[in-house]
Amino acid sequence: MDITFTPHNERTGPQHRVYVIKVERLDEAITWDYYVGYTNLYLREKWQRYEQLAKKLSKYFRREQVRAVGYEYALMKGWGPYDTREEGIQAEGDLARALRDAGYAVHSDRLDKKPDEVPRSARCHTRPLRSAKKHKGGRR
Fold first, then answer.
1. What are the DSSP calls for 20-62, one per residue?
2. pTM across the whole model
3. 10 compared with 92, residue with greater pLDDT
4. Can you tell me whether residue 36 is helix, strand or coil?
5. Which terminal residue of the chain has fewer beta carbons within 10 Å of its beta carbon, N or C?
6. How is residue 139 annotated by DSSP?
7. What are the Cα distances from residue 45, in Å, to 8, 54, 110, 123, 129?
8. How many CB atoms are located within 10 Å of the residue 55 CB?
9. Residues with Cβ < 8 Å from 66, sequence gap 6 or more?
């Protein structure tokens, strides 16, 4: 299936997203069933990377310790999109903690980080969107 996408630099509006993927455990050392991540891609583009086991995926997928089964849209509802990378990365940790606190076995690179701790790379590369309208981001 060939899908044509709008180039990333031509998109407007909030484009930073968090997502939840149900995983199948392939390694018995893995103790979680859901992976929470952040992307600035459309979700269908991100999914194609999971299908292709792209190099930029989490090591658990690249090493085939888990297999992506599908997005859990019900768990992502109301989370984003966000205007900035900082907001998206912050939301990744917030969503992962909320799911963990609700009893889900979840993994995220941001899970054990302090809620206000944003990686330096996110601070250095965050640019305002070209859109004049300010989206209020966050939960809806």
1. EEEEEE-STT---SEEEEEESS-HHHHHHHHHHT-TTS-HHHH
2. 0.70
3. 92
4. strand
5. N
6. B
7. 11, 11, 22, 24, 20
8. 7
9. 23, 24, 25, 26, 27, 30, 35, 60
Residue where the block lists tokens 């944003």: 118
Locate tokens 């205007």: which residue?
83
**R_g of the chain, CA atoms, integer Å:** 15
For 46, the 3-state DSSP assignment is helix
Beta carbons of 104 and 95 less than 8 angstroms apart: no
Strand partners, 36: 20
In this structure, how many other beta carbons lie within 10 angstroms of the beta carbon of residue 11?
16
Query: What digits encode the pLDDT tens for the residues 96-131?
Result: 999 999 999 999 988 877 655 555 444 333 333 233
Q: At residue 54, what is the residue type?
A: A
Per residue in 80-93, pLDDT tens?
889 999 999 999 99
Yes or no: say if 19 and 46 are a contact pair by the CB < 8 Å rule. yes
DSSP lists the bridge partners of residue 104 as: none
Distances (CA, A) of 123 to 55, 64, 117: 23, 31, 10
Q: How far is 106 from 76, CA to CA, in rounded Å?
A: 13
Which residue shows structure tokens 């069933």? 33
